[in-house]
Amino acid sequence: MASVESNEQRVANDFNLEPDPRVLPMLGEINIDQWRCVAELVDNAVDGFLKVSRSGGSITGAKVDVHLPNADSPSAAVRIIDNGPGMSPETLEHAVRAGWSGNNPIDSLGLFGMGFNIATARLGSVTEVWTTRKGEPEWHGLLVDFDKLRQQRHFRTPHLRRPKADSDQHGTEITIKQLKPEQRKWLAKSANQTSIRKRLAQAYSSMLRPNGLPISFDLFINNKRVEGRRHCVWNADRVVPGPGGTEVPAVIRIDHALADRWYCINCMSWLVDAQPSEPCPNCASTDTVVKRERRVTGWIGIQRYLDQSEFGIDFIRNGRKIEIGNKDLFIWSDDESEETEYPIDDQRNRGRIVGEIHIDHCRVSYAKDRFDRTDPTWNEMHHVIRGEGPLRPEKAKDLGFGTNESPLFALFKAFRRTSPQSKAAGAYGRILIVKDNARASEMAASFHEGNPDYQDDTKWYELVEAADRELLYGSGSGGGQSTTPTSGGTGVQLPVGLLGGASTTGGPSITSVAPAVAPLPPAPTPRTEAPALSRRYHHVGTGMKWNVIAYEVENKDPELPAGAPWSMPLGDIPTKTYHFLFNPRHPAFDSVTLTPLDALLAHLAHMTADQIRNTPQDPGFVQIFADFRASYGLETALDLKTLPSAAGSILADVARGIISACPEAERPSLFNELGLQVQNAVMRALAAKKIMPSEATGNGNFLMSGPLEVIRMVVEKRPDLCFDGKLWDAPYADLDYGDPQITDEARYSVLARYLALIDDAIWLTKQDVSDLSSSSRAEIIRAVMSLELLKPDVELAL
């Protein structure tokens, strides 16, 4: 009886809340992707490397080996081996205990115990761990067998030991056995292993590189090195003009120190007011309050190509990417609504702002897939990177926000556009954009494959320069660099790009070429390389690939048949590189339906059809040509979905140009001189967009938000703000034919021409895809040409 009373008294005083052994396998029911399970165990290895690094030491050749099963068999296992510092037996005991938080939550990637049990239980039912430290004579191990723990009804497991041959050896080995059947089947598939490799290459990319941050280590999966996924950005020394005569680099480095704050490493909470000598006011734990350093570091920059999904900011904690390609910083939100601010200038919704931001001090979710947005340190980072208020200057001004000096705003203002807003020479270089984005993306694939010819941005910039030469000289008017004869008395003329060094195609690098063409004529005809057409062309249906370097040539070029508009000789036999030689001044190109690109694709289609003639896979010339056009003619295709928004964007540029050209003192008159009915229409438009009318009507910004027809009215009323180099180069006030009537007629003709272009653009904005589909091809081509002509001839400040 006394014993019963004693037990009752014990229960009255305290409860034993040790979990039942059945809890551990239930952790495996938490739905975490397989790659995250592997990453959780890799994190533990990285934590060991970080610990050594932060104590001032180093581990030579820090490495993690991941071994995944290659077959769906009962003996299949997952192994993660590292050469980290290893653990003591006491630490090992704690490390696999569910809920243990012995790891420093500030400097570590995760909490070994909880993450370890979730990851291992998700994959299998038996986990074996061995660890040893340098100088120890043996390995220490333990076995976590969920079925056995359930049967024995307690958590005790034997301390295993095994000798080691080299006392200097150190590290940890984790083996997950008796994999769940569905996991074993999934892991054994090569496609899924490739997916895991890709995910880990992204997650640890900041550390899988020389001079990695915060450390560097090597990661192998089934004995094959995992290369960290790098961003294909413009070189950091590329700059474009910024406001007030400044320059904006394509990559902006960030290193911003925040004020130190008190932090409890037990409950992982930021404390408003605390002292290290006092218990934590939240959890009452002692000796857990520390003053924590906080710093936002990294970079943001501009990608060399546009993509609808492959852009955004990577957010990193202690070297591991928690969020990849996040786009939250591109959204402006207030208490009522939120708006996406980037990308907004691209009709296909493609972006190119990327970056890597390290915020080691911000909390993450238990699955390590998202930073905690309720953590105040997230908002501090948000302010450092993008500042306060909207990114759009006009929106920020309307809402009363001051000057934004954040790095994201600098990139947004300089690089927000994905096509030139003007026809001015150098327009592509001012925003670092490749005209043919499909080409830029194809070159980016070579970058990610490690092709040395595509690691820096030289080839992309060649295409930027080619587009700017076209603006300056017109299509097919030269202006590039001509080839020159080789020196050394070889008697061979080699085109630029084959003189040595990097190839200008997607093919192999060419460092030397044997004589393959006729000896130099006495007076060699100059050739101008056309990098926009030079590439490797691939016909997917037949698998045929063609290396092509294109050149503009004179009609007297020895390899251009007399009177022919183009030819395609084999320019270099060893590399099978063809030279597309075309005379842009040939009458064949005096056409809106035949361009040098069309000629090149037609010739390639002919060569491809000839190669596979009378074979089972012969689709015929017509289909091959259509395939080539579909792959390489996107920039000249009529995209009915994007035309209306493109027209709206150009009309907005016209409005912006008018405002810029109008002296500030005269800007209120732009609104005041409109008729009452038109003013009311403008006011309704401003109210719908929640824009305060007083400032918008006073500074001219109502043109950006009002009905588009108002832009036409202002152009008609104020041609002095539009011509003679203010918006368009066409002369208006400068026209003088000595007779006032003749001069007025000439000016009216200029004005009427541009009003007609504006009418075409307004018409386009009001069409949807079905409307355009029912329109004639001639109508659409006219509207597209009108947009091109309507673009300003001068650069406008954003």
Count of helical regions: 25
Low-confidence stretches: 477-522
Q: Superfamily at the CATH H level of the largest domain?
A: Histidine kinase-like ATPase, C-terminal domain
Structural class: alpha+beta
| Largest sheet, strands/sense/barrel | 8 strands, mixed
Oligomer: single chain
Strand order across the largest sheet: 5-4-3-6-2-1-7-8
Outline type: globular
Q: Summarize model confidence as the mean pLDDT.
A: 86
CATH hierarchy, class of the largest domain = Alpha Beta
- Kindly provide the radius of gyration, computed on alpha-carbon positions and rounded to a whole number of angstroms: 33 Å
CATH topology of the largest domain: Heat Shock Protein 90
Report the β-strand fraction as a percent range. 15-25%
Number of domains: 4
Q: At CATH's second level, what is the architecture of the largest domain?
A: 2-Layer Sandwich
In short:
This protein has 798 residues and is α+β, with helices and mostly antiparallel strands. The chain is 35% helix and 18% strand. An eight-stranded mixed beta sheet has the order 5-4-3-6-2-1-7-8. A six-stranded mixed beta sheet has the order 12-11-13-18-14-15.
